[in-house]
Specification:
The complex is a heterotrimer of chains A (332), B (353) and C (307). By secondary structure, chain A is of the alpha/beta class. Chain A is built from 12 helices and 12 strands. By secondary structure, chain C is mainly α. The N terminus of chain C is likely disordered. The chains are: A alpha/beta (332), B alpha/beta (353), C mainly alpha (307).
């Protein structure tokens, strides 16, 4: 299975009033055709910025890519012109955001907005576009009747609005969908519906997805593979089971331990310290100030991805040294 | 430590700290010029529960459930349309304005968004001092000492006093909010989704802090949440609300491990598990929460309930005891096996308008 | 665990305490000043206003012909064109126009200061009370506000001045009366949304009394937009003063008020253009300066840009 999207060593900075924010510090991520990969991390880790950079939706003047590459089916995206990017947004890569109310224009009906997207990318008549919108709504699990097509966003409930956004995203058959916290603003029962929809979209339409979330449960339920981000880079990537149940990176392990599932308050683990300031981040591995396994090298050298088994890799000196001694132990 | 029954030294069962009976809160949204054409929002209907000293009651529900309305009614921020709220033995409705103001120092609140719950132009020192100045009548050294003590209690240093909220992280702001809430030495803390806006690792620290404070200060918590994993970790007892009514109440392990109301079952099933090996447990329930203006007749959950019977469309179920202080508002018999029923259809039910 | 700060005892202790207390707001002010200074036009505006203040204060020493500036006429030198002796020429009474313009700088500055103070004392407070308490207080205050808003400033000023006599003091009062309602309305709108904020509700649950809530929580958070609006409005106030004086409803001769000067020069505008043009330019530049500063302040104080 070839790679649909390959992000290699992506670096990005942006200017703020207090200084240069080194938001992405070498992000490595691969997405295969027809798979759902979760991009998991806490606030400030850069997961949203990564998603936006694929479509180059980060404000041009303030953010600058300072290194790395993003390849979609082998083609480099970072060197494309803005007009080329406009053509591929929606047709090759689509995106859905956290707040569906903010993503939909309040003065246009839902049907009109979806039809407009269709007409932007395909040479069809107004009537055909409306029918395409209707079909898209149906695929997103909404009743495909005129009532919904002619509704304004504020007339729909939160879950229906998010479905409408998804319909808009899949209306031009993009093979890759980036969903940035699509269920965070929704109730948990509606969240379950939307996650089921994401799985259905993959099963029926073959849409690959990057599911950006801070909720480990959401990633565990829907994703084939998971990438964990911390302070601007991916620290661990592999299948969901490998990363969540056999984690190698201290941050992944600690994050999983913090989850309250099945514990009493007294049993909760915490991570000491706090998320670093990205204007003046720690040297070497950005997690070292909070890591209980930090070694000398962690303070100076940023760890590179080390393979664990098959798909699973981890960017950590301690994990790498453990792996090395384990394999030595096995061959001895 | 069992907090099932609060027993004082004489062996007598102590009366609850907070007793809410039949609380009903309706809002009138004006439609048109005359009041007669107003829509009535049934935010809360006939809600009853109690909290004992030192205990945590979790109020669980999704949007429109009324949990926030109930909390605000207890805090006297909303005026109840009907029902009684008895706090520390006094019926709040019988108190006059000045009395109530002094009395309510025993119930304080921590809100969901750490940043908007702290006045952005005030320093941390003034934020924590505010309740002490307003009600405690403290000043000078006593005030300064109290502020320092409160900040230390939540794990913040005195050097933080002179900063403003926007200079702190979300978790630290929540700590400041907690310190402020504890300033008047309340017996009851109402926590409205205190960790929902925080990252997982920060959430853990706040929950640990709350647990410590509860033990140290013998506080009761009314903990509002929608995250059932958090609820399971902190609650002694749980009350599940749906569209303004209580669906189920009982001890945390009873309600969460052995739910008797179809909504609670659906809620528990919707929660994604972080264990990827335990997948496809997420049973999707169709439909959405209807509007609180046009509540369905009979049981409010009936449009989405897969065990719906004829009686559910006509008669509103009253809470009855299903055994061991486990109250359920449902027409199904107590021994009905909710897990054995077939999977609900995956398609979305058309929204009830 | 940090060591507790020493309880301030001696005078140096108090001073140290004060600096720590205000460190955060000092840092914020420094940051705001830096952001403000990025706007070059706003800086030019501030510079011009400062310059105007300096010449207004130092008029007796700066103006080349101070007596003429105050009004003394010098009929032998009527209608002198701008030249080395009189940079701005002389007017129909032989008075040096430059000196008159310099002395005239005091008037718009003083009147706008007076109007601003009066408006700020009344307007925002009423708006905050109306917005926070709602109910009948809101109704009464807003209806009174609406009544005042319904009067066009010019008409009200004319009426006022007609009854009480035309002079600058009455003019200032008339303008203040027409300006305060805008601030009441502005602050009321903000107060209505602010009262829903969690920190206000928290204050209520803590038992903080309503007047304290209005003063400590509502009013300070309306400061930003009010300051911006006031700065922009000063320009309009200056224009109104000039305009009404032009119509004969404000300053009386021989006061060197710029609008009055323009009016006095109108009949000679074709030949002796300098009588009206220089004071006109002075009005224009001062109003522009306040507008530029107001725009610059908006960038600093606009809540959208914070956090």
């Amino acid at each position: 299975m070839s790679d649909l999207l390959e992000i290699k060593d992506l670096r990005l900075e942006f200017q703020s009033l207090r200084g240069t924010v080194k938001a992405l510090d070498g992000v490595n991520l691969t997405v295969r055709e027809r798979e759902i990969i979760g991009l998991v991390g806490e606030s400030g880790c850069g997961k949203t910025v990564t998603g936006l950079s694929v479509l180059r939706l980060i404000a041009g003047t303030q953010a600058q890519v300072t290194g790395g590459s993003i390849r979609f089916r082998g083609e480099e995206l970072l060197t494309k012109s803005e007009s080329e990017m406009v053509k591929l947004r929606g047709t090759l890569v689509a995106m859905v955001f956290q707040d569906p109310l903010a993503s939909l224009n309040p003065v246009f009906t839902v049907g009109a907005q979806i039809a407009r997207v269709v007409r932007l990318h395909k040479d069809v008549s107004g009537k055909e576009a409306r029918e395409a919108a209707r079909a898209a709504l149906a695929r997103a699990g909404l009743p495909a009747d005129d009532a919904i097509l002619d509704s304004y966003p504020h007339q729909l409930s939160g879950g229906m609005r998010q479905r409408a956004c998804m319909a808009m995203a899949i209306s031009c058959d993009a093979p890759l969908l980036i969903a940035d916290e699509p269920t965070t603003a929704l109730d948990v029962t509606i969240q379950a519906q939307i996650l089921r929809l994401l799985l259905d979209l993959r099963a029926e339409l073959g849409v690959a997805q990057i599911l950006i979330t801070h909720n480990v449960g959401v990633a565990a339920e829907t994703c084939d593979r998971v990438a964990v981000m911390y302070a601007g880079s991916v620290v661990e990537q592999g299948t969901a089971i490998e990363v969540l149940k056999h984690a190698r990176h201290p941050y992944t392990i600690a994050l999983y331990d913090c989850l309250p599932h099945g514990k009493t308050a007294a049993e909760l683990h915490t991570i000491p310290g706090s998320v670093p300031d990205l204007i003046d981040p720690p040297s070497g591995c950005r997690f070292h100030p909070r890591c209980e396994h930090a070694m000398e090298v962690c303070l100076t050298v940023k760890p590179e991805p080390t393979p664990v088994t098959g798909e699973h890799w981890v960017a950590c000196h301690w994990a790498a040294s453990r792996l090395a001694s384990q394999s030595r132990g096995m061959t001895a | 430590m069992s907090k099932d029954v609060a027993v004082n030294p004489e062996g007598v069962v102590a009366s609850p700290l907070l007793q809410v009976e039949g609380l009903t809160v309706h809002f009138h949204v004006k439609k048109g010029l005359s009041k007669r054409s107003a829509d009535v929002v049934h935010a809360a209907d006939d809600v009853s529960f109690s909290i004992r000293q030192g205990e945590t009651l979790a109020l669980v529900g999704e949007s429109g459930s009324g949990k926030t309305t109930v909390a605000r009614a207890v805090l006297q921020l909303n005026k109840p349309t009907a029902g009684t709220i008895v706090f520390q033995g006094r019926d709040l409705a019988t108190l006059r304005r000045a009395e109530r103001r002094a009395f309510m120092r025993n119930a304080q609140v921590v809100f969901q968004d750490p940043y908007s719950s702290l006045s952005p132009r005030m320093t941390v020192h003034d934020i924590v001092a505010e309740p002490l100045r307003a009600q405690g009548g403290m000043s000078g050294r006593e005030l300064e000492a109290s502020i320092v003590a409160l900040l230390e209690m939540v794990g913040l240093g005195t050097q933080h006093q002179w900063r403003r909220p926007h200079e702190f992280s979300g978790g630290q702001c929540q700590r400041i909010a907690i310190a402020r809430a504890l300033a008047l030495e309340p017996k009851l803390l109402i926590l409205d989704e205190p960790t929902s806006a925080l990252d997982v690792s920060v959430q853990a620290r706040i929950l640990v802090l709350l647990e410590e404070l509860q033990t140290r200060l013998d506080l009761a918590y009314l903990f509002i949440a929608h995250d059932l994993a958090v609820v399971e970790a902190v609650a002694d007892r749980v009350a599940v609300m749906y569209l303004g009514r209580i669906a189920e109440t009982g001890r945390a392990r009873d309600v969460l491990r052995d739910p008797r109301h179809p909504y609670t079952v659906a809620l528990m099933a919707s929660v994604p598990s972080p264990d990827p090996e335990q997948r496809s447990e997420m049973k999707v329930i169709g439909g959405e929460v209807p509007s609180a203006v046009h509540v369905p007749p009979g049981c409010r959950f009936n449009p989405r309930c897969r065990f719906r019977m004829e009686v559910c469309d006509r008669v509103e179920p009253q809470p009855h005891d299903a055994g061991g202080d486990h109250l359920v508002a449902c027409h199904l018999p107590d021994d009905f096996d909710l897990a054995a029923a077939p999977e609900p259809p995956a398609a979305v039910a058309k929204e009830d308008v | 665990m940090a060591t507790p700060a020493p309880v301030s005892a001696g005078s140096t202790g108090v001073f140290v305490d004060w600096r720590a207390r205000h460190a955060s707001s000092a840092a914020e002010t420094r940051h705001n000043v830096r952001v403000f200074f990025r706007d070059k036009l706003a800086v030019v505006g501030v510079a011009w206003i400062c310059f105007m203040i300096v010449i207004a204060v130092g008029a007796p020493w700066i103006a080349p012909y101070p007596d003429e500036g105050r009004g003394a006429s010098h009929l032998a030198n009527r209608f002198a064109a701008p030249g080395a002796q009189h940079w701005f020429g002389t007017d129909n009474l032989g008075r040096d126009v430059l000196s008159r313009v310099i002395f005239g700088a005091r008037i718009p500055l003083m009147i706008s200061a007076a109007v601003v103070i009066a408006v700020l004392l009344i307007g925002p407070l009423l708006g905050a009370l109306a917005g926070y308490f709602g109910g009948w207080l809101d109704e009464i205050i807003m209806r009174i506000t609406d009544i005042f808003l319904a009067f066009p400033a010019i008409v009200l000023a004319m009426a006022f001045v007609a009854i009480l006599g035309p002079n600058l003091r009455n003019l200032a009062i008339a303008i203040a009366i027409t300006w305060w309602p805008w601030y009441t309305r502005l602050v009321r709108g903000m107060a209505v949304s602010l009262r829903e904020r969690p920190y206000v509700e928290a204050a209520k649950t803590m038992g903080v009394r309503s007047p304290v809530i209005v003063l400590r929580h509502i009013l300070p958070n309306t400061l930003g937009p009010v300051v911006v609006q006031i700065t922009l409005d000063v320009g309009t106030v200056i224009l109104e003063v000039a305009g009404l004086s032009f119509l004969g409803l404000g300053a009386r001769p021989p006061t060197p008020e710029w609008g009055l000067m323009v009016s006095e020069g109108v009949e000679y505008i074709l030949e002796q253009w300098w009588m009206s043009v220089f004071p006109g330019i002075a009005i224009f530049l001062l109003v522009l300066a306040f507008n530029l500063v107001g725009d610059g302040l908006r960038d600093v104080l606009d809540p959208r840009m914070k956090r």
